[in-house]
Amino acid sequence: MELVPVAIAALSALLSVVATYLAVRSRDMLSAAVFSAAQSTAYALIYYVLMAPDIVLVYVPVSVGILPAVTVLLIKKTERYER
Amino acid sequence: MSDPVSLLLTVLVLSLVTNIGISLYGVFTRPSLVKKFISLTIFSDTLNSFAIALGFRRVARGYPSIAVIPSIPEDVSELRAAAGTAVDPLPQALVLTAIVIGLAVYMFLAGLIVMYYRHYGTTHVRPAEGGSIG
Questions:
Q1: What does the alpha-carbon distance between residue A73 and residue A65 come to, in Å, rounded to a whole number?
Q2: How far apart are CA A63 and CA A37, in angstroms?
Q3: Is residue A11 part of a domain?
Q4: B110 lies in which domain range?
Q5: Residue B92 in domain
Q6: Which of A65, A67, B7, B113 has its Cβ near the most Cβ atoms within 10 Å?
Q7: What's B119's domain CATH number?
Q8: Is B114 exposed, middle or buried (0-12, 13-18, 19+ CB in 10 A)?
């Protein structure tokens, strides 16, 4: 009964590891911001499965919406590629 | 450990530990301040996820419920039954606060990075240490 939601949480945790690795390794800051948003989406799924829907309601607008937008603005005002 | 749910929860926690390692590697070794910024957001999100995972617990039958009592309880036993199947709401309240405070801190950091770029002409950390980008 509780196997399926926990399996979804574990799968999205593994997905977030991949997204974090790609976000840290990529030279292009814009794709790093996109991978960071993907990691945040996986975390939102984990929060939902771990019975914290109030956290999801705050976390999705902040970490999938505002933070990548701020990062993209930051990249636009500074430089895009890492040297 | 033979229980598949325990195994999956272990996989979840180990993935979070791996994420902490990768994001700290990003904060410490990547030279660009924007990359440090992105890694720091991932690091703080992972710590929040640890707090949420601390509040989660497994009940004897079924799946644990949200820590909300929809109606006014008649007596203590109803309250006790609701508390017996709910997850811990205290880490969730703390994480809710931490997310909002973290957003303010990241806005401040983003402003500082823009100031750094206007002063040095790059987001590389080397000029601030007195060296040149090589």
A1: 13
A2: 7
A3: yes
A4: 4-66+78-129
A5: yes
A6: A67
A7: 1.10.287
A8: middle
- Write down the number of H helices and E strands in chain B: 4, 0
Query: Structure pTM?
Result: 0.91
pLDDT, tens only, A37-52? 999 999 999 999 998 9
| Entry field: residues in chain A | 83
Residue A82 lies in a domain: no
- In a mutagenesis test of the A interface, which of B37, B38, B118 is the best target, namely the one with the most A β-carbons within 10 Å? B38
Question: Is A30 within the bounds of a domain?
Answer: yes
Residue ranges of chain A whose pLDDT lies below 50:
none
Residue among B119, B99, B38, B19 nearest A72 (CA): B38
Assess if residue A20 is contained within a domain: yes
Choosing among B27, B28, B30, B49, which should be mutated to test the A contact, i.e. which has the most A CBs within 10 A? B49
